[in-house]
Amino acid sequence: MELITKAPKGTRDIIPGESEKWTMVENVMANEAELNGFSEIRTPVFEHTELFLRSVGDTTDVVEKQMYTFEDKGGRSITLRPEGTAGAVRAMLENGMPNNGYPIKLYYKTSCYRYEKPQAGRLRELHQFGVEMFGAAEPVADAQVIMLGMSIFERLGLKDDVQLAINSIGCPTCRAEYHKALKTYFTEHKEELCETCNSRLERNPMRILDCKSPICGALAKNAPKITEYLCDDCAAHFEKVKSLLTEVGIEFTVDPGLVRGLDYYTRTVFEFPSSRFGYALGGGGRYDGLVEEIGGKPTPALGFGLGFDHIMLALKEAGTEFPTESKCDLYIASMGEAAQLKAFKLVGELHRSGVAADCDLCGRGLKAQMKYADKVGARYTIVLGDNEIESGKAELKNMKTGEKKKISIGEDFLDAYLTETTAQDDLAF
């Protein structure tokens, strides 16, 4: 029988065996964020399209080519979130978080949606861990956010495989002069630019620097550098960020061509590339004008996004070993209806006490039950039949050592089980 349908192109299922690894990585990221004072936020999977048009930028690839936008039954234009920052800003403002004082520190684990050609580590449904900080204008905030990202990679065992590239793309004042220089340069090569970049030439020539076309990319390498046009304030800010990173021992390279793919960035931008794996595992920067653009008061802000899909691929390529823990401490096999009922009641008692336990739910024979217990990695097993029900005792078997011990299955079962398994674990240790 054929499936009615398959998962849509560019999506994937994260099934048991993989999902546990994802959870472990998520927990590392969340723990590091919370150590730095960040709290979790969860935002809707879709927003009004206007939010992304105003924040992401109408000259970006995301808006021009990749957004999943549709009209709902009420005639409203709705878009599946293509990135996490805009929704976090909207939620921060709508829920009055500034009333509690600055800085506001948020993190999220989320899915984003972009219609692009699927490839290894980059799907149409992409998974992301992000942090956002609002109300902190000082360079030390930039350094802390970058340091948080690097500490996550260190905790994941990727410290030696991930680099840091940084740049400053200035503020609106110094970017205005830079845009003029870019426009002059690219106008001389107008015939060589792709159709998309020709449309960007008038509206936002910086977007040409982010074009994936090999020809446009080659032209961009010889284009004027933003670092040559920074105003005094932006230059001083960038120098302080570099100084702070050096102070805490974080190595970096300055990449004048790094502009990031979204229009809301200002001043410091950064990426976490990997020369070993050949792709970036995340990036971010400042977006000091975004809060005001969305409708709030002028508020400095910054953050980053890490790509789960790329990180999980990197961990696999690095041969990372994840600890495997049994999901079943005790499996109670049964023979006969009375034994099955007893097993069911004992398992319920164990669950209420926080013990992972299971019993037969498929009407299997004893041999098949024991085979299943072995497959799920049960640490201990008990077999119940008429004799065990009558005597009130059963054999507890340690599946690792083969050692057996008679224990009560009466009212004192839980105490007997916990006492015996703790003693055996201590002995094994």
- Percent helix: 25-40%
What Rg is obtained from the alpha carbons, in whole angstroms? 28 Å
Query: What is the average of the pLDDT values?
Result: 90
Oligomer: single chain
CATH topology term of the largest domain: BirA Bifunctional Protein, domain 2
Largest sheet: 8 strands, mixed
Strand order of the largest sheet: 1-5-6-11-10-9-7-8
The number of strands is: 16
SS field, number of helical segments: 15
Apparent shape: elongated
Q: In the residues, how many domains can be counted?
A: 2
Given this structure, which CATH class of the largest domain is correct?
Answer: Alpha Beta
Strand content: 15-25%
Alpha-beta content class: alpha+beta
For CATH, the homologous superfamily of the largest domain is named as Bira Bifunctional Protein, Domain 2
Q: How far is it from the N-terminal to the C-terminal residue, by CA? A: 50 Å
CATH architecture classification name of the largest domain: 2-Layer Sandwich
Uncertain regions: pLDDT < 50 for 5+ in a row? Answer: none
